[in-house]
Amino acid sequence: MASITYARRVTESPTTHIPPAHTTTDGAIGAVGAAATGALTWRDGRVYRHGAPHRVLSGALHYFRVHPDLWRDRIRRVADLGLNTVDTYVPWNFHQPREDTAPRFDGWRDIERFIRTVGEEGLDVIVRPGPYICAEWSNGGLPSWLTARDIALRSSDPAFTSAVGRWFDELIPRIAALQTTEGGPVVAVQVENEFGSFGDDHAYLRRLRHALTVRGIRELLFTADGPTDLMLDGGTLPGTLTAVTLGSKPAAARRLLAARRPGEPFVVAEFWNGWFDHWGEPHHVRGVDSAVGTLRGIVADGGSVSIYMAHGGTNFGLWAGANEGDGGHQPVVTSYDSDAPIAEDGSLTAKFFAVREALGAQGPPRSSARPVTLPPTRVPLVHRAGLLAGLRAVPAPTVTAARPATFEQLGLDAGMVLHTAHPRIPAGEHRLVLTDVRDRALVFVDGTLLGVAEPGSPELAVRGTGDAVRLEVLAENLGRVNYGPGIGRHKGLLGPVLVDRRTVQGWRSTPLALQEWSDAELTTALAAGPTTTPTTPTGFAVATLSVDTPADTFLALPGSGRGLVWVNGFLLGRHWEIGPQLTLYCPAPLLRAGENTVTVLELERLGTTLELRDRPELGPPEEYIEEFG
Protein backbone atom coordinates (compact mmCIF):
# COMPACT_ATOMS: atom_id res chain seq x y z
CA MET A 1 0.00 0.00 0.00
CA ALA A 2 1.05 3.59 -0.45
CA SER A 3 2.78 5.27 2.47
CA ILE A 4 0.56 7.70 4.40
CA THR A 5 1.89 10.44 6.64
CA TYR A 6 -0.25 11.54 9.57
CA ALA A 7 -0.27 14.80 11.48
CA ARG A 8 0.41 14.08 15.15
CA ARG A 9 -0.64 15.71 18.41
CA VAL A 10 2.53 16.95 20.12
CA THR A 11 2.52 16.67 23.91
CA GLU A 12 6.25 17.04 24.62
CA SER A 13 8.69 19.65 23.36
CA PRO A 14 11.08 18.11 20.84
CA THR A 15 14.70 17.86 21.97
CA THR A 16 17.93 16.71 20.48
CA HIS A 17 17.95 13.11 19.23
CA ILE A 18 19.53 10.85 21.86
CA PRO A 19 20.72 7.51 20.43
CA PRO A 20 21.12 4.69 21.03
CA ALA A 21 17.87 3.63 22.63
CA HIS A 22 16.64 0.18 23.59
CA THR A 23 14.29 -1.49 21.13
CA THR A 24 13.24 -5.00 20.22
CA THR A 25 12.99 -4.89 16.48
CA ASP A 26 14.47 -8.29 15.69
CA GLY A 27 12.61 -10.49 18.18
CA ALA A 28 15.82 -12.03 19.57
CA ILE A 29 16.08 -12.77 23.26
CA GLY A 30 17.89 -9.97 25.06
CA ALA A 31 17.95 -7.67 22.06
CA VAL A 32 18.94 -4.20 23.30
CA GLY A 33 20.66 -1.35 21.58
CA ALA A 34 19.37 -2.46 18.17
CA ALA A 35 18.83 0.02 15.37
CA ALA A 36 15.96 2.34 16.27
CA THR A 37 13.73 1.75 13.27
CA GLY A 38 10.43 2.36 15.06
CA ALA A 39 8.98 5.49 16.63
CA LEU A 40 9.26 4.56 20.31
CA THR A 41 12.51 3.64 22.03
CA TRP A 42 13.73 3.81 25.61
CA ARG A 43 16.91 4.68 27.45
CA ASP A 44 17.81 5.19 31.10
CA GLY A 45 14.25 4.85 32.32
CA ARG A 46 12.75 7.22 29.76
CA VAL A 47 10.64 6.78 26.61
CA TYR A 48 11.62 8.58 23.42
CA ARG A 49 9.67 9.17 20.25
CA HIS A 50 12.01 9.57 17.29
CA GLY A 51 14.68 10.63 19.77
CA ALA A 52 12.64 13.22 21.67
CA PRO A 53 11.59 12.63 25.30
CA HIS A 54 8.03 11.37 25.33
CA ARG A 55 5.27 10.10 27.55
CA VAL A 56 2.76 7.66 26.10
CA LEU A 57 -0.61 9.01 27.21
CA SER A 58 -2.98 6.46 25.78
CA GLY A 59 -6.64 5.61 26.06
CA ALA A 60 -8.19 2.23 25.38
CA LEU A 61 -10.88 2.44 22.70
CA HIS A 62 -12.10 -0.77 21.06
CA TYR A 63 -13.33 -0.50 17.48
CA PHE A 64 -15.43 -3.62 18.00
CA ARG A 65 -17.43 -1.95 20.79
CA VAL A 66 -18.25 1.27 18.92
CA HIS A 67 -20.40 1.62 15.80
CA PRO A 68 -18.07 2.40 12.86
CA ASP A 69 -19.98 5.57 12.04
CA LEU A 70 -18.98 6.84 15.50
CA TRP A 71 -15.31 5.86 15.43
CA ARG A 72 -14.08 9.32 14.49
CA ASP A 73 -16.28 11.04 17.07
CA ARG A 74 -14.99 8.81 19.87
CA ILE A 75 -11.37 9.18 18.72
CA ARG A 76 -11.73 12.96 18.87
CA ARG A 77 -13.12 12.71 22.39
CA VAL A 78 -10.09 10.62 23.39
CA ALA A 79 -7.87 13.34 21.95
CA ASP A 80 -9.88 15.96 23.86
CA LEU A 81 -9.10 14.03 27.04
CA GLY A 82 -5.48 15.12 26.62
CA LEU A 83 -4.16 11.84 25.24
CA ASN A 84 -1.75 11.29 22.37
CA THR A 85 -2.38 7.59 21.68
CA VAL A 86 -5.24 5.12 21.23
CA ASP A 87 -4.80 1.45 22.02
CA THR A 88 -7.05 -1.38 20.95
CA TYR A 89 -7.26 -5.12 21.29
CA VAL A 90 -8.00 -7.33 18.27
CA PRO A 91 -10.56 -10.09 19.00
CA TRP A 92 -9.84 -13.08 16.78
CA ASN A 93 -13.35 -14.52 17.19
CA PHE A 94 -14.93 -11.26 16.03
CA HIS A 95 -13.03 -11.49 12.75
CA GLN A 96 -13.26 -15.25 12.26
CA PRO A 97 -16.25 -16.73 14.12
CA ARG A 98 -16.18 -19.85 11.91
CA GLU A 99 -13.14 -21.87 10.92
CA ASP A 100 -14.44 -22.65 7.44
CA THR A 101 -14.58 -18.97 6.48
CA ALA A 102 -11.69 -16.57 5.98
CA PRO A 103 -11.20 -13.80 8.55
CA ARG A 104 -13.15 -10.67 7.70
CA PHE A 105 -11.70 -7.16 7.71
CA ASP A 106 -14.60 -5.22 6.24
CA GLY A 107 -17.33 -3.05 7.72
CA TRP A 108 -17.30 -3.16 11.52
CA ARG A 109 -14.22 -5.41 11.32
CA ASP A 110 -12.15 -2.99 9.26
CA ILE A 111 -9.34 -2.49 11.75
CA GLU A 112 -7.19 -0.83 9.10
CA ARG A 113 -9.80 1.87 8.60
CA PHE A 114 -9.96 2.36 12.36
CA ILE A 115 -6.18 2.72 12.67
CA ARG A 116 -6.05 5.14 9.76
CA THR A 117 -8.81 7.22 11.31
CA VAL A 118 -6.87 7.44 14.58
CA GLY A 119 -3.84 8.59 12.62
CA GLU A 120 -5.86 11.17 10.69
CA GLU A 121 -6.91 12.64 14.03
CA GLY A 122 -3.26 13.07 14.98
CA LEU A 123 -2.88 10.23 17.49
CA ASP A 124 -0.55 7.26 17.68
CA VAL A 125 -1.86 3.69 17.87
CA ILE A 126 -0.90 0.75 20.06
CA VAL A 127 -2.20 -2.63 18.86
CA ARG A 128 -2.77 -5.57 21.21
CA PRO A 129 -3.35 -8.54 18.87
CA GLY A 130 -3.41 -11.32 21.44
CA PRO A 131 -4.28 -13.97 20.29
CA TYR A 132 -5.81 -13.91 23.79
CA ILE A 133 -7.15 -10.51 24.86
CA CYS A 134 -9.38 -11.03 27.94
CA ALA A 135 -11.20 -7.64 27.68
CA GLU A 136 -14.37 -9.11 29.22
CA TRP A 137 -14.99 -10.33 25.69
CA SER A 138 -16.42 -13.75 24.87
CA ASN A 139 -13.78 -16.50 25.29
CA GLY A 140 -11.11 -13.85 25.75
CA GLY A 141 -11.18 -13.33 21.99
CA LEU A 142 -10.30 -16.94 21.12
CA PRO A 143 -12.66 -18.58 18.60
CA SER A 144 -14.90 -21.25 20.10
CA TRP A 145 -14.16 -23.51 17.13
CA LEU A 146 -10.55 -23.54 18.32
CA THR A 147 -11.20 -23.95 22.03
CA ALA A 148 -13.61 -26.80 21.23
CA ARG A 149 -10.57 -28.96 20.50
CA ASP A 150 -8.53 -30.92 23.00
CA ILE A 151 -5.51 -28.63 22.90
CA ALA A 152 -3.44 -26.70 25.42
CA LEU A 153 -4.56 -23.10 25.00
CA ARG A 154 -2.02 -20.29 25.24
CA SER A 155 0.91 -22.67 25.09
CA SER A 156 3.56 -24.08 22.76
CA ASP A 157 1.18 -26.88 21.77
CA PRO A 158 1.61 -27.03 17.96
CA ALA A 159 -2.14 -27.42 17.54
CA PHE A 160 -2.57 -24.02 19.15
CA THR A 161 0.42 -22.17 17.70
CA SER A 162 -0.24 -23.36 14.16
CA ALA A 163 -3.77 -21.98 14.31
CA VAL A 164 -2.43 -18.70 15.74
CA GLY A 165 0.13 -18.59 12.94
CA ARG A 166 -2.57 -18.83 10.28
CA TRP A 167 -4.54 -16.04 12.00
CA PHE A 168 -1.42 -13.86 12.29
CA ASP A 169 -0.71 -14.46 8.59
CA GLU A 170 -3.97 -12.60 7.91
CA LEU A 171 -3.78 -9.95 10.64
CA ILE A 172 -0.21 -8.91 11.29
CA PRO A 173 0.77 -7.78 7.76
CA ARG A 174 -2.19 -5.38 7.89
CA ILE A 175 -0.85 -3.92 11.13
CA ALA A 176 2.73 -3.86 9.85
CA ALA A 177 1.68 -1.82 6.82
CA LEU A 178 0.39 0.89 9.17
CA GLN A 179 3.50 1.24 11.36
CA THR A 180 5.36 4.53 11.59
CA THR A 181 8.13 2.86 9.58
CA GLU A 182 5.60 2.77 6.72
CA GLY A 183 4.23 6.26 7.34
CA GLY A 184 1.33 5.08 9.53
CA PRO A 185 0.39 5.72 13.18
CA VAL A 186 1.19 2.32 14.83
CA VAL A 187 3.98 2.84 17.38
CA ALA A 188 3.86 -0.33 19.51
CA VAL A 189 2.51 -3.88 19.56
CA GLN A 190 1.86 -6.04 22.61
CA VAL A 191 3.07 -9.63 22.93
CA GLU A 192 0.16 -11.82 24.21
CA ASN A 193 -1.79 -10.34 27.13
CA GLU A 194 -1.27 -10.70 30.88
CA PHE A 195 0.19 -14.13 30.25
CA GLY A 196 1.72 -14.24 33.73
CA SER A 197 -1.80 -14.44 35.16
CA PHE A 198 -2.28 -17.68 33.24
CA GLY A 199 0.91 -19.65 32.65
CA ASP A 200 4.71 -19.78 32.49
CA ASP A 201 5.48 -21.19 29.02
CA HIS A 202 8.20 -18.75 28.00
CA ALA A 203 8.87 -20.67 24.81
CA TYR A 204 5.33 -19.79 23.78
CA LEU A 205 5.93 -16.09 24.46
CA ARG A 206 9.19 -16.16 22.52
CA ARG A 207 7.42 -17.88 19.64
CA LEU A 208 4.70 -15.21 19.62
CA ARG A 209 7.28 -12.44 19.65
CA HIS A 210 9.03 -14.10 16.72
CA ALA A 211 5.66 -14.50 14.94
CA LEU A 212 5.19 -10.74 15.12
CA THR A 213 8.65 -9.77 13.91
CA VAL A 214 8.84 -12.22 11.03
CA ARG A 215 5.54 -10.83 9.76
CA GLY A 216 6.94 -7.32 9.67
CA ILE A 217 6.50 -5.69 13.08
CA ARG A 218 9.35 -3.21 13.60
CA GLU A 219 7.86 -0.99 16.27
CA LEU A 220 8.32 -1.34 20.01
CA LEU A 221 7.21 -4.68 21.46
CA PHE A 222 6.10 -5.03 25.07
CA THR A 223 4.45 -7.42 27.49
CA ALA A 224 1.81 -6.44 30.07
CA ASP A 225 1.22 -8.18 33.42
CA GLY A 226 0.02 -7.51 36.93
CA PRO A 227 2.65 -6.02 39.27
CA THR A 228 3.48 -9.13 41.33
CA ASP A 229 6.52 -11.36 41.21
CA LEU A 230 4.38 -14.34 40.26
CA MET A 231 2.78 -12.59 37.28
CA LEU A 232 5.98 -10.94 36.10
CA ASP A 233 7.88 -14.23 36.37
CA GLY A 234 5.36 -15.88 34.06
CA GLY A 235 4.67 -13.11 31.58
CA THR A 236 7.87 -11.19 30.84
CA LEU A 237 10.68 -11.76 28.35
CA PRO A 238 14.31 -10.61 28.35
CA GLY A 239 14.82 -7.89 25.78
CA THR A 240 11.15 -6.99 25.56
CA LEU A 241 9.84 -3.97 27.46
CA THR A 242 7.83 -4.90 30.55
CA ALA A 243 4.64 -2.95 31.22
CA VAL A 244 2.18 -3.51 34.07
CA THR A 245 -1.58 -3.43 34.54
CA LEU A 246 -3.05 -2.04 37.74
CA GLY A 247 -5.84 -0.14 39.45
CA SER A 248 -3.93 1.28 42.41
CA LYS A 249 -0.56 1.49 44.21
CA PRO A 250 1.57 2.76 41.31
CA ALA A 251 4.50 3.59 43.61
CA ALA A 252 4.78 -0.04 44.70
CA ALA A 253 4.59 -1.20 41.08
CA ARG A 254 7.26 1.30 40.09
CA ARG A 255 9.61 0.00 42.81
CA LEU A 256 9.01 -3.62 41.81
CA LEU A 257 9.74 -2.93 38.13
CA ALA A 258 12.84 -0.87 38.97
CA ALA A 259 14.19 -3.79 40.98
CA ARG A 260 13.38 -6.41 38.36
CA ARG A 261 13.97 -4.45 35.15
CA PRO A 262 16.52 -1.71 35.93
CA GLY A 263 16.76 1.02 33.35
CA GLU A 264 13.35 0.37 31.81
CA PRO A 265 10.73 3.14 31.81
CA PHE A 266 7.62 2.86 33.98
CA VAL A 267 4.76 2.00 31.63
CA VAL A 268 1.24 1.09 32.78
CA ALA A 269 -0.41 -0.68 29.87
CA GLU A 270 -3.77 -0.63 31.65
CA PHE A 271 -4.80 1.74 34.41
CA TRP A 272 -8.25 0.66 35.57
CA ASN A 273 -9.96 3.95 36.26
CA GLY A 274 -13.31 2.13 36.34
CA TRP A 275 -14.59 -1.43 36.17
CA PHE A 276 -17.11 -3.63 34.37
CA ASP A 277 -20.35 -5.15 35.67
CA HIS A 278 -21.89 -8.60 35.99
CA TRP A 279 -25.60 -9.35 35.79
CA GLY A 280 -27.13 -9.45 39.24
CA GLU A 281 -24.33 -7.46 40.90
CA PRO A 282 -23.92 -3.73 41.65
CA HIS A 283 -22.85 -1.16 39.05
CA HIS A 284 -19.14 -0.67 39.69
CA VAL A 285 -17.75 2.86 39.71
CA ARG A 286 -14.44 4.48 40.61
CA GLY A 287 -14.52 7.84 42.37
CA VAL A 288 -13.03 10.78 40.50
CA ASP A 289 -10.56 11.71 43.25
CA SER A 290 -9.44 8.08 43.61
CA ALA A 291 -8.94 7.60 39.89
CA VAL A 292 -7.15 10.91 39.31
CA GLY A 293 -4.94 10.45 42.37
CA THR A 294 -3.68 7.11 41.04
CA LEU A 295 -3.26 8.57 37.55
CA ARG A 296 -1.08 11.36 38.91
CA GLY A 297 1.09 8.77 40.62
CA ILE A 298 1.53 6.87 37.36
CA VAL A 299 2.52 9.80 35.14
CA ALA A 300 4.81 11.37 37.74
CA ASP A 301 8.48 11.40 36.78
CA GLY A 302 7.81 10.61 33.12
CA GLY A 303 5.60 7.56 33.60
CA SER A 304 3.52 6.42 30.62
CA VAL A 305 -0.05 5.16 30.87
CA SER A 306 -3.01 3.76 29.01
CA ILE A 307 -6.35 4.55 30.61
CA TYR A 308 -8.52 1.43 30.53
CA MET A 309 -11.09 2.31 29.43
CA ALA A 310 -10.98 5.85 28.06
CA HIS A 311 -14.23 4.99 26.29
CA GLY A 312 -15.70 1.56 26.93
CA GLY A 313 -18.51 1.30 24.41
CA THR A 314 -20.96 -1.60 24.28
CA ASN A 315 -20.88 -5.41 24.20
CA PHE A 316 -23.29 -5.49 21.28
CA GLY A 317 -24.92 -8.77 20.33
CA LEU A 318 -23.78 -11.70 22.45
CA TRP A 319 -20.09 -10.80 22.62
CA ALA A 320 -20.02 -10.10 26.37
CA GLY A 321 -17.77 -12.49 28.26
CA ALA A 322 -18.11 -13.97 31.73
CA ASN A 323 -16.10 -14.74 34.83
CA GLU A 324 -16.11 -17.58 37.30
CA GLY A 325 -16.17 -16.72 40.99
CA ASP A 326 -17.44 -17.93 44.32
CA GLY A 327 -20.97 -17.38 43.04
CA GLY A 328 -20.40 -19.55 39.98
CA HIS A 329 -20.83 -18.26 36.44
CA GLN A 330 -20.82 -14.43 36.30
CA PRO A 331 -21.95 -13.13 32.89
CA VAL A 332 -20.92 -9.60 31.91
CA VAL A 333 -23.67 -7.10 31.09
CA THR A 334 -24.33 -5.61 27.65
CA SER A 335 -22.95 -2.19 28.56
CA TYR A 336 -19.20 -1.72 28.73
CA ASP A 337 -19.47 1.82 30.05
CA SER A 338 -16.87 0.88 32.70
CA ASP A 339 -17.34 4.23 34.46
CA ALA A 340 -14.90 5.59 31.89
CA PRO A 341 -14.18 9.31 31.42
CA ILE A 342 -16.08 9.12 28.12
CA ALA A 343 -19.38 7.38 28.82
CA GLU A 344 -20.96 4.63 26.74
CA ASP A 345 -22.85 7.18 24.60
CA GLY A 346 -19.85 9.51 24.28
CA SER A 347 -20.89 11.88 27.06
CA LEU A 348 -18.07 13.74 28.80
CA THR A 349 -18.21 12.94 32.50
CA ALA A 350 -16.85 14.67 35.60
CA LYS A 351 -14.01 12.15 35.47
CA PHE A 352 -13.24 13.31 31.91
CA PHE A 353 -12.63 16.90 33.02
CA ALA A 354 -10.64 15.86 36.09
CA VAL A 355 -8.39 13.57 34.06
CA ARG A 356 -7.98 16.28 31.45
CA GLU A 357 -6.80 18.72 34.10
CA ALA A 358 -4.42 16.16 35.61
CA LEU A 359 -2.83 15.59 32.20
CA GLY A 360 -2.46 19.32 31.56
CA ALA A 361 -4.70 19.52 28.50
CA GLN A 362 -5.05 23.07 27.22
CA GLY A 363 -8.18 24.86 25.98
CA PRO A 364 -11.75 23.60 25.96
CA PRO A 365 -12.61 20.21 24.42
CA ARG A 366 -13.76 20.30 20.82
CA SER A 367 -16.48 17.72 21.42
CA SER A 368 -19.96 18.46 22.71
CA ALA A 369 -20.53 17.46 26.32
CA ARG A 370 -23.35 15.13 25.36
CA PRO A 371 -24.64 13.72 22.06
CA VAL A 372 -28.20 14.52 20.98
CA THR A 373 -30.89 12.04 22.06
CA LEU A 374 -34.41 11.26 20.93
CA PRO A 375 -37.13 12.67 23.17
CA PRO A 376 -38.39 10.23 25.83
CA THR A 377 -41.52 8.35 24.84
CA ARG A 378 -43.38 5.07 25.22
CA VAL A 379 -44.57 2.76 22.48
CA PRO A 380 -46.65 -0.42 22.69
CA LEU A 381 -44.86 -3.75 22.74
CA VAL A 382 -47.04 -6.18 20.79
CA HIS A 383 -46.75 -9.94 21.32
CA ARG A 384 -46.48 -11.66 17.95
CA ALA A 385 -45.28 -15.26 18.42
CA GLY A 386 -44.92 -17.81 21.18
CA LEU A 387 -41.43 -18.71 22.34
CA LEU A 388 -41.27 -22.32 21.18
CA ALA A 389 -43.38 -21.68 18.08
CA GLY A 390 -41.12 -18.84 16.96
CA LEU A 391 -37.90 -20.71 17.62
CA ARG A 392 -39.11 -23.89 15.93
CA ALA A 393 -40.16 -21.92 12.85
CA VAL A 394 -36.66 -20.72 11.95
CA PRO A 395 -34.91 -23.29 9.73
CA ALA A 396 -31.69 -24.70 11.17
CA PRO A 397 -29.71 -27.92 10.72
CA THR A 398 -30.73 -30.48 13.34
CA VAL A 399 -28.50 -33.19 14.81
CA THR A 400 -30.04 -36.45 16.00
CA ALA A 401 -28.08 -38.52 18.52
CA ALA A 402 -28.39 -40.53 21.70
CA ARG A 403 -27.17 -37.55 23.76
CA PRO A 404 -27.89 -33.82 23.46
CA ALA A 405 -25.34 -32.12 21.21
CA THR A 406 -23.23 -29.40 22.81
CA PHE A 407 -22.75 -25.95 21.32
CA GLU A 408 -19.29 -27.04 20.17
CA GLN A 409 -20.55 -30.19 18.47
CA LEU A 410 -23.06 -28.03 16.62
CA GLY A 411 -20.45 -25.45 15.64
CA LEU A 412 -22.39 -22.81 17.58
CA ASP A 413 -20.55 -20.00 19.35
CA ALA A 414 -23.37 -18.10 21.04
CA GLY A 415 -27.14 -18.15 21.31
CA MET A 416 -29.26 -21.16 22.28
CA VAL A 417 -29.88 -24.80 21.43
CA LEU A 418 -33.34 -26.37 21.41
CA HIS A 419 -33.13 -30.03 22.45
CA THR A 420 -36.13 -32.33 21.98
CA ALA A 421 -36.71 -35.88 23.26
CA HIS A 422 -39.77 -38.08 23.91
CA PRO A 423 -39.19 -40.04 27.11
CA ARG A 424 -41.90 -42.17 28.68
CA ILE A 425 -42.40 -41.03 32.28
CA PRO A 426 -44.16 -43.44 34.68
CA ALA A 427 -47.18 -42.19 36.57
CA GLY A 428 -46.47 -40.13 39.66
CA GLU A 429 -43.83 -37.63 40.80
CA HIS A 430 -40.28 -37.95 39.46
CA ARG A 431 -37.04 -36.02 39.39
CA LEU A 432 -35.84 -34.52 36.11
CA VAL A 433 -32.13 -33.74 36.48
CA LEU A 434 -29.92 -31.80 34.05
CA THR A 435 -26.61 -33.02 35.41
CA ASP A 436 -24.34 -30.43 33.78
CA VAL A 437 -25.99 -27.42 32.14
CA ARG A 438 -23.98 -24.42 30.92
CA ASP A 439 -25.35 -21.90 31.61
CA ARG A 440 -29.13 -21.90 31.94
CA ALA A 441 -31.99 -23.92 30.50
CA LEU A 442 -35.74 -23.52 30.19
CA VAL A 443 -37.43 -26.93 30.43
CA PHE A 444 -40.78 -27.62 28.78
CA VAL A 445 -43.02 -30.68 28.93
CA ASP A 446 -45.65 -30.87 26.19
CA GLY A 447 -45.19 -27.15 25.51
CA THR A 448 -45.67 -26.02 29.11
CA LEU A 449 -42.78 -24.48 31.06
CA LEU A 450 -41.69 -26.86 33.80
CA GLY A 451 -38.99 -24.60 35.21
CA VAL A 452 -35.45 -23.28 34.92
CA ALA A 453 -32.35 -25.43 35.42
CA GLU A 454 -28.95 -23.97 36.33
CA PRO A 455 -25.70 -25.45 37.66
CA GLY A 456 -26.70 -24.69 41.24
CA SER A 457 -30.26 -25.96 40.82
CA PRO A 458 -30.28 -28.65 38.12
CA GLU A 459 -33.29 -30.62 39.39
CA LEU A 460 -36.99 -30.16 38.59
CA ALA A 461 -40.06 -32.10 39.66
CA VAL A 462 -42.06 -33.70 36.86
CA ARG A 463 -45.34 -35.63 37.03
CA GLY A 464 -45.74 -38.51 34.63
CA THR A 465 -48.83 -40.33 33.38
CA GLY A 466 -47.14 -43.40 31.96
CA ASP A 467 -47.18 -41.97 28.44
CA ALA A 468 -44.39 -40.44 26.37
CA VAL A 469 -44.01 -36.66 26.66
CA ARG A 470 -42.46 -34.04 24.43
CA LEU A 471 -39.50 -32.87 26.50
CA GLU A 472 -37.87 -29.68 25.21
CA VAL A 473 -34.83 -28.08 26.80
CA LEU A 474 -33.83 -24.61 25.62
CA ALA A 475 -30.17 -24.30 26.63
CA GLU A 476 -28.68 -20.81 26.69
CA ASN A 477 -25.06 -19.65 26.62
CA LEU A 478 -24.86 -16.60 28.93
CA GLY A 479 -21.30 -15.73 27.94
CA ARG A 480 -18.02 -17.57 27.48
CA VAL A 481 -15.41 -17.18 30.22
CA ASN A 482 -12.81 -14.55 29.32
CA TYR A 483 -10.26 -14.88 32.13
CA GLY A 484 -8.58 -17.67 34.06
CA PRO A 485 -8.53 -21.45 33.68
CA GLY A 486 -12.17 -21.54 32.59
CA ILE A 487 -11.39 -20.13 29.14
CA GLY A 488 -12.67 -22.45 26.45
CA ARG A 489 -15.18 -24.32 28.59
CA HIS A 490 -17.93 -25.86 26.52
CA LYS A 491 -21.57 -24.80 26.54
CA GLY A 492 -24.96 -26.47 26.51
CA LEU A 493 -26.08 -29.77 28.04
CA LEU A 494 -22.73 -31.34 28.84
CA GLY A 495 -24.02 -34.17 30.97
CA PRO A 496 -26.94 -36.57 30.70
CA VAL A 497 -30.54 -35.63 31.37
CA LEU A 498 -32.07 -38.03 33.90
CA VAL A 499 -35.55 -39.08 34.91
CA ASP A 500 -34.68 -40.20 38.41
CA ARG A 501 -31.60 -42.35 37.68
CA ARG A 502 -32.55 -43.29 34.11
CA THR A 503 -30.86 -41.45 31.23
CA VAL A 504 -33.07 -39.84 28.59
CA GLN A 505 -31.81 -40.91 25.17
CA GLY A 506 -32.71 -40.06 21.60
CA TRP A 507 -32.37 -36.29 21.16
CA ARG A 508 -32.84 -33.81 18.35
CA SER A 509 -30.62 -30.76 18.87
CA THR A 510 -31.29 -27.58 16.88
CA PRO A 511 -28.80 -24.69 17.04
CA LEU A 512 -30.28 -21.19 17.29
CA ALA A 513 -27.51 -18.88 16.07
CA LEU A 514 -29.24 -15.74 17.33
CA GLN A 515 -26.15 -13.58 16.86
CA GLU A 516 -26.22 -14.40 13.14
CA TRP A 517 -29.95 -13.88 12.64
CA SER A 518 -31.02 -11.26 10.14
CA ASP A 519 -34.39 -9.73 9.30
CA ALA A 520 -35.24 -12.95 7.42
CA GLU A 521 -35.00 -15.16 10.51
CA LEU A 522 -36.81 -12.62 12.68
CA THR A 523 -39.63 -12.32 10.14
CA THR A 524 -39.98 -16.10 10.07
CA ALA A 525 -40.11 -16.32 13.87
CA LEU A 526 -42.68 -13.51 14.13
CA ALA A 527 -44.88 -15.17 11.52
CA ALA A 528 -45.21 -18.31 13.64
CA GLY A 529 -47.90 -16.61 15.68
CA PRO A 530 -48.90 -17.19 19.29
CA THR A 531 -49.95 -20.75 20.13
CA THR A 532 -51.89 -19.53 23.17
CA THR A 533 -52.72 -16.25 24.84
CA PRO A 534 -51.09 -16.65 28.25
CA THR A 535 -51.43 -14.03 30.98
CA THR A 536 -47.66 -13.52 30.99
CA PRO A 537 -46.57 -14.30 27.43
CA THR A 538 -43.05 -15.13 26.33
CA GLY A 539 -41.64 -15.28 22.85
CA PHE A 540 -41.41 -12.64 20.15
CA ALA A 541 -42.79 -9.10 20.31
CA VAL A 542 -42.47 -5.97 18.20
CA ALA A 543 -42.49 -2.23 18.83
CA THR A 544 -42.51 0.36 16.06
CA LEU A 545 -40.63 3.64 16.46
CA SER A 546 -41.34 6.63 14.29
CA VAL A 547 -38.22 8.82 14.05
CA ASP A 548 -37.85 12.17 12.30
CA THR A 549 -34.09 12.52 12.65
CA PRO A 550 -32.04 9.60 14.01
CA ALA A 551 -30.35 10.26 17.34
CA ASP A 552 -29.13 8.23 20.29
CA THR A 553 -31.63 6.69 22.67
CA PHE A 554 -31.76 4.29 25.61
CA LEU A 555 -34.26 1.44 25.46
CA ALA A 556 -36.02 0.10 28.56
CA LEU A 557 -38.49 -2.76 28.92
CA PRO A 558 -40.46 -2.17 32.13
CA GLY A 559 -42.37 -5.26 33.18
CA SER A 560 -40.27 -7.60 31.01
CA GLY A 561 -37.97 -10.18 32.54
CA ARG A 562 -35.07 -11.38 30.40
CA GLY A 563 -34.25 -11.68 26.74
CA LEU A 564 -32.71 -10.14 23.65
CA VAL A 565 -33.40 -6.96 21.69
CA TRP A 566 -32.92 -6.29 17.97
CA VAL A 567 -33.15 -2.85 16.33
CA ASN A 568 -33.88 -2.96 12.60
CA GLY A 569 -32.47 -6.48 12.51
CA PHE A 570 -29.30 -5.66 14.47
CA LEU A 571 -28.88 -7.58 17.74
CA LEU A 572 -28.40 -4.81 20.29
CA GLY A 573 -27.80 -7.11 23.25
CA ARG A 574 -29.24 -8.81 26.31
CA HIS A 575 -31.71 -7.31 28.80
CA TRP A 576 -32.37 -8.73 32.26
CA GLU A 577 -34.49 -7.30 35.04
CA ILE A 578 -32.00 -8.39 37.73
CA GLY A 579 -29.79 -5.50 36.58
CA PRO A 580 -27.77 -3.59 37.35
CA GLN A 581 -28.20 -2.38 33.76
CA LEU A 582 -31.83 -1.52 32.98
CA THR A 583 -31.43 0.39 29.69
CA LEU A 584 -29.79 -0.58 26.41
CA TYR A 585 -27.81 2.07 24.55
CA CYS A 586 -29.00 2.38 20.95
CA PRO A 587 -26.64 4.61 18.90
CA ALA A 588 -28.11 6.86 16.25
CA PRO A 589 -26.58 4.99 13.26
CA LEU A 590 -28.78 1.97 14.02
CA LEU A 591 -31.91 4.06 13.43
CA ARG A 592 -33.32 5.58 10.25
CA ALA A 593 -35.70 8.39 9.46
CA GLY A 594 -39.24 7.03 9.40
CA GLU A 595 -40.36 3.72 10.88
CA ASN A 596 -37.99 1.54 12.89
CA THR A 597 -38.67 -1.94 14.21
CA VAL A 598 -37.59 -3.15 17.62
CA THR A 599 -37.92 -6.92 18.05
CA VAL A 600 -37.81 -8.52 21.48
CA LEU A 601 -37.22 -12.18 22.26
CA GLU A 602 -38.59 -12.54 25.79
CA LEU A 603 -37.76 -15.66 27.79
CA GLU A 604 -39.52 -15.02 31.08
CA ARG A 605 -42.25 -12.39 31.13
CA LEU A 606 -43.19 -9.89 28.45
CA GLY A 607 -44.24 -6.39 29.44
CA THR A 608 -46.53 -4.21 27.37
CA THR A 609 -44.30 -1.20 26.75
CA LEU A 610 -41.00 -0.19 25.23
CA GLU A 611 -39.62 3.05 26.65
CA LEU A 612 -37.20 5.43 24.99
CA ARG A 613 -35.21 7.34 27.57
CA ASP A 614 -32.70 10.16 27.27
CA ARG A 615 -30.43 8.89 30.06
CA PRO A 616 -28.88 5.50 30.82
CA GLU A 617 -29.83 3.53 33.89
CA LEU A 618 -26.88 1.32 34.75
CA GLY A 619 -27.87 0.57 38.34
CA PRO A 620 -27.08 1.72 41.88
CA PRO A 621 -23.33 2.48 42.03
CA GLU A 622 -20.79 0.75 44.25
CA GLU A 623 -17.21 1.97 44.63
CA TYR A 624 -14.77 -0.62 43.32
CA ILE A 625 -10.99 -0.74 42.90
CA GLU A 626 -9.25 -3.85 41.58
CA GLU A 627 -5.92 -4.52 43.23
CA PHE A 628 -3.16 -7.09 42.79
CA GLY A 629 -1.11 -8.50 45.62
Automatic annotation (TrEMBL):
**Which PROSITE patterns did the record assign?**
GLYCOSYL_HYDROL_F35
Organism source for this protein?
A: Streptomyces paludis
Where in the sequence is the active site? Answer: 194, 270
Matches recorded under Pfam families: BetaGal_ABD_1 (PF21317), BetaGal_gal-bd (PF21467), Glyco_hydro_35 (PF01301)
- Please give the catalytic activity noted in the UniProt record: Hydrolysis of terminal non-reducing beta-D-galactose residues in beta-D-galactosides
Residue ranges occupied by any Beta-galactosidase galactose-binding domain in the UniProt entry:
543-596
Put simply, this protein is called Beta-galactosidase
Region called Disordered, residue ranges: 1-23
Q: What is its EC number?
A: 3.2.1.23
| Any one GO BP annotation for this protein | carbohydrate metabolic process
The family classification in the record reads: Belongs to the glycosyl hydrolase 35 family.
- Classify the source by domain of life: Bacteria
Q: Does the keyword Hydrolase apply?
A: yes
| MF-aspect GO terms | beta-galactosidase activity
| Residue intervals of the Glycoside hydrolase 35 catalytic domain | 49-359
Which SUPFAM superfamilies does the record associate with it?
(Trans)glycosidases, Galactose-binding domain-like
Q: What class of enzyme is it?
A: hydrolase
